[in-house]
Design brief:
30% strand; five-stranded mixed beta sheet; five-stranded mixed β-barrel; Rossmann fold; binds magnesium ion; elongated; alpha+beta; 413 residues; binds adenosine-5'-triphosphate
Length: 413
Amino acid sequence: MRQSKLFTKTVKELPKDEASYNAQALIRAGFIDKVGAGIYSYLPLGKRVLDKISQIIREEMNAIDGQEILMTALVPKENLESSGRWAAFDVLFRLSGSDKREYALGATHEEIVSPLAKKFILSYKDLPFGAYQIQTKFRNEKRAKAGLLRGREFLMKDLYSFHADQADLDSYYETVTAAYHKIYARLGLGEMTYLTYASGGSFSKYSHEFQTVSAAGEDLIYICEKCRVAVNREIIDEQKACPACGSRELAEKKAIEVGNIFKLGTKFSEPFGVRYKDRTGEERPTVMGCYGIGPSRIMGTLVEIYHDEKGIIWPANVAPYRVHLLSLGENGAADKIYADLINQGIEVLYDDRDLSAGEKFADFDLIGCPYRVVVSKKTLASESVELKGRAETASSLIKISELPARLEAKAGI
Ligand code: ATP
Ligand code: MG
């Protein structure tokens, strides 16, 4: 992408009411635009990051046989009345249609996926299966002050699984847990993300959250480093010890809930009549699980964790571009390097604008691509470019012919 063509720019003036670091950094660097409290648009650079996060999640969901669907954002009132949540769910955005019927903007989709599954589940032979979507959710959050960490409109991946019995749900729940660990590792969050015991599902003693340690977090968790698990504050009173090893040496940390997995049991299959005929021909309710991850909250979390005083430092797997190529008045040579890198399949943001070196360096630091490549009269004198990692202070001169190979090597984080 030529930066001269990018319609967005880095921003000097921040919205006055934006208190969160992640949104400030993302607005300043031109990734998002603030429309209202907890409401943000994703700009070209931000959309690329959000898509990369979503794609990692998608690949891991497909690897555990999740089937991708896209459900409706409008949820009829009757559906939510069947589960009792029209009245009980305090964060619903409610609206009426021209047909005088009432709807909610989808905040979660058990009430859509359950009647959908009912249409296709007849016998035990139709089970198990899992269906997921990556979709915008709407919640009228009261505290929408944490930027992308708590949107009133935000992206969620929600997977729902359907099983003949609890044993089958239990085993798939473990499969999803392993898939979630893989996702956080690929996102650069593996080391600081803990499987956390939270207050019970409707069907089990605990549900589980995935909590990423960060000072920006709204949750308090108690970590057992030996077992790499944690307990949420909400249940810590009855559970003052590590649920895995019993140790009482737990470290209290602030954390961000980046995912949540839940054994629903028959909570939704009963009211929606999602039943199947077992081998003896007897009718039974299906047993369900639900599993959420917030890609937009993860984007905010990454910014909270990976930054310095100059700007964002994206982990390589989710960076908008792998390389930020800066031409210091040498567009002739830089154009050729840009074309060569693209031909080699390397993603490049190319600063071909007529700006000072200082402005270009500052934009590189704000935007946070893993590598900076500088083309100047001085570097060209030795048929070289200057290469620097975003998180590094020292740069080195690299022969232009060796550049693609150097960039293919694993980047910083
Ligand atoms: P919280 O306790 O933080 O409000 P939740 O328990 O309501 O989260 P779920 O309903 O389980 O969250 O949603 C699944 C996932 O969606 C969460 O783990 C989180 O990653 C994401 N998520 C939930 N609410 C928001 C929000 N308001 N903004 C951004 N992401 C969110
Ligand atoms: Mg919530």
